[in-house]
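Weekly structure sync - notes
Attendees: PM, LS, DV (DV joined late)
Agenda: review two folding runs queued last week.

Item 1: First target. Sequence and structure tokens pasted below for the record.
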Amino acid sequence: MIAKFDSAADLMAHYAALRVRLRGPEPKPFVHASALPVEDEPTPVVVIAPPMPVPLVRMPVFLMAPHEIRISFEDVASLVCAKTKFHRREIFAPRRTHDICFSRQLLWALARRFCWHMSLPQIGRASGGKDHTTILHGCKRGEKHPDFVELCGVLEDLYEEKRRQNAALIEQAEMEKEGV
């Protein structure tokens, strides 16, 4: 559900309400006894706010149907960055050195194969505003990268791990329902 707001003030009020719901109300300011004015001489009041405690909130577990389990573009990008030893800024920079371009094309080929929920224009936008035809050409070249097969195996293992974790969460949720 996407909320629509008429003005920036409405949006800020919405965020303030969310902060209160998540963190609780703002703490009341603490006034130290030494900051209170003495009867003879007026002393400025010093207000000290205690640090805001962060409540421990158990995050809800969102179970996914098997067809909703997916590898994110960020997962693929971090894997390619780790393998090629290039920083993410370097891969998405407009530079066209051979190593950087080939790494970028490897990223696109892996994203096209494993980020099946993303279209070519979406991959292009995530890559810094590239055109979908550039992504398509890069995918064909990226499949020829020497690390392509190895990284495909790593991403398949990551997908299986996510699938196993989700299955365990579904099983745990079913057991909790039966116990209740």
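Item 2: Second target, run right after the first with the same settings.
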Amino acid sequence: MPEAQRSRFRRSRLLALGAMLGAATLLTFAVLRPTGDEPGATPDPGSGPGRVSSPEAAQGPGIGAAAPLADGAVARLNGVTADVSLEPGLPGPEAGMRLDRLDVEMCAGGADLFVDAAFWNGLGDDQRVHSAHMGVRSFFTLTMAPGSCQRGSVDLTVVEGVELVAVLLMDTSQTMVARWSAGGEPGDTVPLASDVRANATALGSQVELVVGGSATLHAVDLDAEPSARAADTRGGGLVSVDAELCAGLEPIPTSPRHWFLRLADHRLVGADPNRSTVQAGTLDAEGCSRGTIDFPLPAGSPPAGVLYAYGGQFELASWVIDR
């Protein structure tokens, strides 16, 4: 598809979905498809864990191996940690269940890539599929732009006494598109990448949005001072960005939650709305809004970029942070 035609198609698709942004998560695109002729294992339908139809699903590459997906996208399982504990006050699993944490990473290829924590599942030695815990996730539901990457954690709800033997990546039809053996430890890994280079721009650049209007990242303060209203910075400090969003001929939604800080290891950090001066609402046609958006920076990985996602769901612009 020519680039101009692709942009028109993407714009019409986003505008058609704009009215749905106040509803639940937009599970719209089923872009994860098997790349070969091997049939995927399909769990039985139902609300609870289902038996997987292919006992061979425990086989597959080990932790740290990248799996090819459709359109040049790639996915990788970076690690599995059994029986993790959540911070006080966070919703945990039901009695008789535990949480096993997956460290996962995905990169888009030549097309948009819709990612969601719910696509990641575990196969237990009971030959049943164990799904993602709905309470706490650091892997954001997002339609990533071509070449863009995201890394995060997904907690699986697993029955006590059951051991995971494989990790499964599913699509929206519950068809398996990749699998890994859950045992072992990865070696040293560099950030995952597809063959497509992400279209990130320099700080200060204005990016024209396919939905109309523009987004501009004016400045980044890597050493912002936390205040009494700040969220827990998790030991890594605070990053504040000066951002501007302008609508085109149609109104567009605005919120600090539509902006993300990208770390060097591809993890995304959501904004702290209690510190940000950008307010949630709707930007009138041809109107502009400029303000600061603050991000609590976790320890261990430096910031590498900022991305803007329309409605918090569709990545439309990204900028590089030079340290």
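Discussion on item 2: The chain is about 5% helix and 40% strand.
Action: LS to circulate a short write-up before next sync.
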